Amino acid sequence: MNLFGFLGLPVSMSVHGPQVDKLMYYVHYLMLALFVGWFGYFIYALFRFRKSSNPKASYVGAKSHASSYVEIAVALVECVLLIGFAVPLWGGLVDKFPEEKDATVIRVAAEQFAWNSRYSGKDGIFGKQDVKFISTANPLGLDAADPNGKDDVVTPLNEMIAPLGKPVITYFTSKDVIHSFKVVPFRVTQDCIPGLSIPIWFQPTKVGDYLINCAQLCGNSHYFMKGIFKVVTPEAYEVYMAEKSKGGGAAVSFE
Q: How many C-alpha atoms does 38 have within 13 Å on its Cβ side?
């Protein structure tokens, strides 16, 4: 067990989680080294330049360039962390999306103070949405006239589900203010911004129910904006989707 596991770093439950944790380890090790180094120098300066040893102030100051070399070394280490680890990790997650045909695709619309999610159904094509269709009965603004939406599946409020063994591609937007989707075990955080559809992807590694939090202060009930992300077996996922698809799917009449 490493230091951070001992201190309670949450267990990683996604494919990219260990890489995120590794980057955090390196950053904290660097901060620890800087703390020890600068604290040691602080103690040295207290004794080296105490009044009894230096009764007369020096107006020349330090002539050595050692501090400059230390600062350069620290800057180089930080560049290695940024260019060697952070940027490649980010690039790998953001730019190299899996094919949608090989992934579970979810469209999520956040609102005060809940998560709305839908799936494309067996045809793999999402039905159209438009803000003009939004109502109490149709919170996602689905177009009931679009045949592609007849088999779309809208899960219960604050509930998302995905099968184990497949990547998950999720498109986030918001109906009102900025929210932020966060699932700590997946090491995933993404802002949900009105007017934008922002995709992210991740791949869970263990069956279970995982807490969804809103990581952006979004109003007076922000604390209660929680949900559950269910990771189930492929068989259980098919049963779940078949059950939710009964009755003509999601995009039925919203009169």
A: 9
* Residue 6: predicted pLDDT: 54
Question: CA 109, CA 61: separation in Å to the nearest integer?
Answer: 61
Between 209 and 10, where is the model more confident? Answer: 209
**How many alpha carbons fall within 13 Å on the CB side of residue 51?**
0
* Total residues belonging to the chain: 255
Q: Strand 114-119 relative to strand 179-183: parallel, antiparallel, unpaired?
A: unpaired
Q: Which residue has the tokens 């109003």?
A: 219
Q: Which residue has the higher pLDDT, 155 or 55?
A: 155
Q: How far apart are CA 253 and CA 255, in angstroms?
A: 6
Structure tokens at 170: 């999720």
* pLDDT value of residue 51: 82
Distance (Å, rounded) from C-alpha 255 to C-alpha 244? Answer: 20
Q: Dihedral sign, CA of 232, 233, 237, 243?
A: negative
Triad 187, 153, 214: Cα angle to 5°: 30
Phi, psi of 241, deg, nearest 5:
-65, -40
Q: Is the pLDDT of residue 248 over 70?
A: no
Instruction: Specify whether the CB–CB gap between 170 and 106 falls below 8 A.
Output: yes
Find the mean pLDDT for residues 100-109.
93
